[in-house]
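Example 3.2
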Amino acid sequence: MRVSRRTLALSLLLAPAVVACDEELEYPPGGSTTPSATEHPAFMFQVIASTFNGWDPSATPTPETQSVAVVPKNRLTTQGLSKDMVFTIEKLEGQRVTFTTSEKLSDKGVFDGETLFTVAYGEELKLHTPSMDVVVDYVISLQPGA
């Protein structure tokens, strides 16, 4: 088989580009070139939950701290008033996380409540179950990722 000089020169010029593309697609073996958010999250969503009993003045709350990687649809389940409270990460925008809760929580009064909240890195969001006697307090914050 006869190959012209022009075809040979063109194939020699393109060969390194093809090899470079192959190397990029195969590195690291079996995975992408960027770590996933679950392996190296930018932030951890931290919840400190503690129950306050207005009927028993000698009761001391026992805080429970849990964290989950800030990845959309990740869930964190912790103690609630009558059943577990589930926090679901909805989205991360810069250093702000929007999340939902399985039950209404309030940052203001006793009877109002929401299920959609936002917290920013460097801030603490203090929420509670809207009740007058037994309350679960939640302190939500973003911590540096792993």
